[in-house]
Amino acid sequence: MLTDFTFPSEEMIASFVGKNILGAPQFSKEELEAVLGVAAFYEKALKEGKRLWDMDGKVMAALFFEPSTRTRLSFETAMHRLGGRVITLAESPENQISSTSKGETVHDTIKMVDNYADVIVIRSPRTGDAEIAANAASHPVVNAGDGFGQHPSQALLDMYTIVKEKGNPEGLTVAMIGDLKYGRTVHSLVDFLKYYKCRLVMASPDELKMPESIVQKMLDNGVEVKFCATIDEAVAEADIIYMTRVQKERFADLAEYDAVKDMFLMNGETLQHFKPGAVIMHALPRVNEISLDVDDYPGAAYFRQAGNGLFVRMALLALTTGNVRGAFKPEWAL
Amino acid sequence: MLTDFTFPSEEMIASFVGKNILGAPQFSKEELEAVLGVAAFYEKALKEGKRLWDMDGKVMAALFFEPSTRTRLSFETAMHRLGGRVITLAESPENQISSTSKGETVHDTIKMVDNYADVIVIRSPRTGDAEIAANAASHPVVNAGDGFGQHPSQALLDMYTIVKEKGNPEGLTVAMIGDLKYGRTVHSLVDFLKYYKCRLVMASPDELKMPESIVQKMLDNGVEVKFCATIDEAVAEADIIYMTRVQKERFADLAEYDAVKDMFLMNGETLQHFKPGAVIMHALPRVNEISLDVDDYPGAAYFRQAGNGLFVRMALLALTTGNVRGAFKPEWAL
Amino acid sequence: MLTDFTFPSEEMIASFVGKNILGAPQFSKEELEAVLGVAAFYEKALKEGKRLWDMDGKVMAALFFEPSTRTRLSFETAMHRLGGRVITLAESPENQISSTSKGETVHDTIKMVDNYADVIVIRSPRTGDAEIAANAASHPVVNAGDGFGQHPSQALLDMYTIVKEKGNPEGLTVAMIGDLKYGRTVHSLVDFLKYYKCRLVMASPDELKMPESIVQKMLDNGVEVKFCATIDEAVAEADIIYMTRVQKERFADLAEYDAVKDMFLMNGETLQHFKPGAVIMHALPRVNEISLDVDDYPGAAYFRQAGNGLFVRMALLALTTGNVRGAFKPEWAL
Q: Active site includes C85?
């Protein structure tokens, strides 16, 4: 029972060494809880002011083929907090600043970077790039989001947040609001929620419903699924409310977008419909899907959620490279 | 009397912990001299080849929402020389590489980064962004320039430079040349000069005169103010000559710009009008406002001035985070 | 005889301190072998898992006025692996993110950065910028490629690769294929090959022949030079095959480009013409000049070659700053 985080066994820790982190589905329940346990270990160490150097002397390559400030800074900070070093390639489709602009493939870029780094974090607008990278590299590759594919560290930090905010996730009711069709985040999260028989309550525009295949996967795992017409209805029975953004560019018909664009927003009024103690999550950045007057609500966890990304990413970097050592600088070094 | 720098008292050092550095006006004379004293302490340590680690294990976020190479590299080096780590977000208006391009507010970006960093340095083209950041963050925020607002670390390094170059600033005559209307730098500097009863001598195009409110503030503080028609007249009685650039885009009428654009430039000929030992300062980058033949003049202090930014920024980072410790790596680590 | 690498004498190491690394021609045979010897020393240390801190407390500035991911990440990693810190200015002609966009000269930028860094690495699209930088800086400058000028660290890593792959380079036959007119890489390499009386075999389009002056320099040094019409003919007698890209923009007449563009490509079929044990090199990135089916050939050394850049650049940084110390963190720090 996951009411609290447990530091994993040596065998479990050893099983991560050299592994690529490509998607949420690769994690068994035990592996998921192992990552969360190591994340909690690092969170505690940082809170106590310990100077970690588990990854002293090691180098992480952050290859961001599309901009993602939050994820990049979170991974970079994770490596720094572990005492390691960072090399960064940050480019956007509009601003190709690397040799990939000369026509180099992701495969070749990875073959090159693999010479320099002990672990490679890759973000790409192209689905499948993380797997291409993993095949090219001799060092572990961590997928930081590839197109419509996976974003496993986000799903892991979401689970970490749920447990920190609510304790045992067993049987919780999770409301998912907004764009459930293209939302990589919620798709990955359900892969973990199924381990704890969480109930799913969903509210989205018709165009942006959760894909049937994912719903079926949940049902096959004995997860109860419910569809609601309004956000107020969905939040009414939720312990966790996961907000996502409804983006204009997802709609072929702009009239359709205009009709629904204000239906799945949360504001201070929405809070009236909450169960006591309900928690609001969001992968950020937000635009207007959560209004500012919600920020003061004690269960508004989205900024804490972003913070949790740090500990989970520290765990992934240290686990895959075999550096979960709990090495602290001695007293005189503080 | 500030003829030399004095390391501040423990009480004074403690008073900086957790403070935001938003603008020059927030500094009392004692606080100003405390920062300079700590800067001098760090300069001495570096000159002696000491390996500092006052900020070992700590992370600085450099958020540059507009390009400013000099200021960014100076802050980043300051953190590295203190043994700390750096995460950087560098974007330009033309090249929005962060999630702020998806519509995220500065407030939300800071709430996120506040989870990762122990101190946040922000540069923005929008006046007031530094204060928004300070309100959003639980960690100290250092304003590295916000629009037409403040740029306090520049004013501090300017004062540090004046004292290093001339000793006691009491009663010095400071000439300010060029754009005194939009020049954030000279506006901030006068807030410090008033503590030492410096005389101000100004030469600028009519369109770019020092704002009346600032002149009045100087007069109210018993500072003598004089306006000159030419650069030659202004430099004639100056101990310090602070050059700024006259930019074309400040003029509504281009004919007006053409009429004055060459009037406030300094070249080898201008040096003939100097008092012996006069010092030239400039916040850099320069274009043509100081010609290359001036660089060999011993009092041409602008590159030394840029170097002083390092020590002052080390002081600000260590003071606000409570890390002025003078922690050096032991002998065997050298 | 350079069959293996030899760690240089103290006098030789001392002779590098404070030197700028501007071009391959500046290296005597003894100096070349000294760099390779230090590179081998660092490679061995890294392979043994040692945590170097020869450059602990030091700062390298990476000033990239044009994008070059491979070279930048390689230099940055070199500094990190030596325990040092990195500040980076990465801009492209299309995306001027530094104050150089405000009209600042390279000279002034270097004068500024010289205050912050212990060693300056510069990459520029303008031939001669590295020398301008060296004149402006008090710290060592390493040229990471300037326009059609030099790229000495590339030539050094190429020699390091040749010795690692083939042992003693004395008398080897080196085939150079593709664009030999504009290829900075091959021009620099011949400056080293002449020390070992390597035979040169060249195959290129008529428009892109090796410049006469370089050919003459080789002949003057007693190097045998041969021109071949086809790639198959050139590779037939080669121990080392150095591939370069034939770029469309080099041709005034596109019909001419179309006529030759496929003539100097290497694919699996080309391998049939190889001498046993022949080694393929390429400075990367490649586009289509080496097809993917060549990658599995054991002598395909181009990714290993990129990796060798790390050790050679570690050597250059430590040598020029006087930090070849072989300082390792103590056991308890691992």
A: no
Using one digit for the tens of pLDDT, what is the confidence trace for B237-264? 999 999 999 888 888 888 888 888 889 9
The enclosing domain of A251 has a CATH number of 3.40.50.1370
Closest A-chain CA to B106: A285
How many domains does the structure of chain A reveal? 2
Q: Are residues C259 and C234 in the same domain?
A: yes
**Do both B223 and B326 map to the same domain?**
no
Contact across the interface for C53 and B310, Cβ inside 8 Å: no
Same domain? A198 vs A94: no
Q: Which of B70, B197, B226, B250 is catalytic?
A: B70
d(CA C251, CA C249): 5
Chains in contact with A via at least 3 Cβ–Cβ pairs below 8 Å: B, C
- Pick the more confident residue, C97 or B321: B321
- Angstrom distance (rounded) from CA B172 to CA B164: 13
Domain with B107, as residue range(s), is 10-150+309-333
Show the low-confidence residues of chain B (pLDDT under 50): 1, 92-101
Report which secondary-structure segment, H or E, holds B218. helix B212-220
Whole-angstrom distance, CA of residue A101 vs CA of residue A99: 5
Would residue B36 count as lying in a domain? yes
pTM of the model: 0.95
Is the per-residue pLDDT at A97 higher than 70?
no
Inspect the interface and report whether the beta carbons of A285 and B115 lie closer than 8 Å. no
Instruction: Based on the fold, state whether residues A183 and A86 are members of the same structural domain.
Output: no
Pairing of strands C59-64, B225-228: unpaired
Q: Could you tell me if residue B4 is inside a domain?
A: no
Q: Which chains touch B (3 or more CB pairs under 8 A)?
A: A, C
Which residue numbers of A are catalytic? 70-71, 102, 123, 151
> Is ipTM strictly over 0.90?
yes
Give C73's contacts in chain A (Cβ within 8 Å). Answer: 61, 87, 89, 112-113, 116
The answer to whether B209 and B180 have CB atoms below 8 angstroms apart is: yes
